[in-house]
Amino acid sequence: MKITFGEVVPNLRPWVQHLDQVWPAYIIKPQFAAWEVLHILSLVILGGTAILMNLRLAGAGLAEEKPSEVYRNLRRWQDLGVLGIIISGVLIGMANAERLYDSTAFVVKIIALIAGIVLTYGAGRPIARADGLVSKAARLWFFVGTGLWLASVGVFATAVLANPGLFHVLMAAALIVLALTRKAARAVFVVGLSVLVIGQIIVTHSVIPADDLSRLDPANKVYAALLAVWIFGNAGREGLRPASDQDPERMAKLVGYVSILVWVTAAAAGRWIAFA
Predict the structure, then answer these.
(1) Which residues, in sequence order, are CB contacts of 2 under 8 Å at separation 6+?
(2) Alpha-carbon span 268 to 136, nearest angstrom
(3) Better pLDDT: 219 or 213
(4) Which residue from 68, 81, 145, 194 has the least number of CB within 10 angstroms?
């Protein structure tokens, strides 16, 4: 089933069709590209600062600084990114409303953005401010945000022509696992990941003809599933290994993992809107 706002709330179509004629949409539309650059820049600011903070929570990145110090240095930039995303997003959304109304990738982006804000403000920032200690409230907001993120991933899988964007999320997850895995296990992880990636390239570029979509599509889905099992299986093994005194709390690490992936999901969905 194709999931779009047009399918969920079809009665809004007449209003959506005329939204680009409402002020300030008719002013924004001729300069749409410039406003989209502002939107992307805002996402980069928010996503980038959130990634830096959450890498620290996960035990990587700016290891010489306490999580609370990283949070204090980045919080205003995160706030600026949120404001920029909301303002520029509403404006360019009004100017291009009907296309977004029928885009599954846009649904993914909206859900992922909400999940990212929930995880950043409800879980990541409070945990970083407390130097890795996870409160009950932060734990609750983490589960809410994670549920929304998983819902966005589920919708992404149904997005015709856009669902290959999930490979961006998988490879981002692979890079996180690579950064946080100990040396001995890292080599095994890299070998397994390389076999899967090279195998996919060979099968989908040599064994199966490029125009044989009836076979390419199932093959890519199988590889996506295998990649997910390998990446998240290794992430789980790394998360369950005995912790040292210098390691962050497991829950804090998990918040760091998910809070990074949610912004990758939002960014990937936004870039794949044009293909849906």
Answers:
(1) 104, 158, 160
(2) 31
(3) 219
(4) 194
- Alpha-carbon distance of 103 to 108, in angstroms, equals 9
Mean pLDDT, range 239-267, rounded to an integer:
78
**Separation of alpha carbons 276 and 270, rounded Å:** 11
Greatest Cα pair distance in the chain? 60
Residue 2 has φ and ψ, to the nearest 5°, of: -80, 120
- Reading the block at residue 160, the tokens are 């015709």
Task: Find the helix or strand (DSSP H, E) in which 170 lies.
Answer: helix 166-180
Distances (CA, A) of 2 to 55, 158, 221: 35, 6, 17
132 and 67 Cβ atoms separated by less than 8 Å: yes
Q: Is residue 5 within 8 Å of 107, Cβ to Cβ?
A: yes
> When comparing pLDDT for 66 and 249, which is higher?
66
End-to-end CA separation in angstroms for the chain: 14
3-state secondary structure of 188: helix
**Whether 185 contacts 238, CB under 8 Å:** yes
Cα–Cα distances in Å, from 212 out to 39, 133, 165, 186, 206?
A: 37, 52, 20, 36, 11
Q: Residue 238 region, left (φ>0) first, then alpha (ψ -120 to 50), else beta?
A: alpha
3-state secondary structure of 7: helix
Across residues 36-60, what is the average pLDDT? 86
Cβ–Cβ under 8 Å, residues 232 and 173: yes
CA 258 – CA 264 distance, rounded (Å)? 10
Please calculate the CA angle 130-139-269 and round it to the nearest 5 degrees: 105
Rounded Cα distance between 107 and 10, Å, is 14
Encode 18-53 in three state secondary structure: CHHHCCCHHHHHHHHHHHHHHHHHHHHHHHHHHHHH
- Domain boundaries, given as residue ranges, for the chain: 5-182+241-275
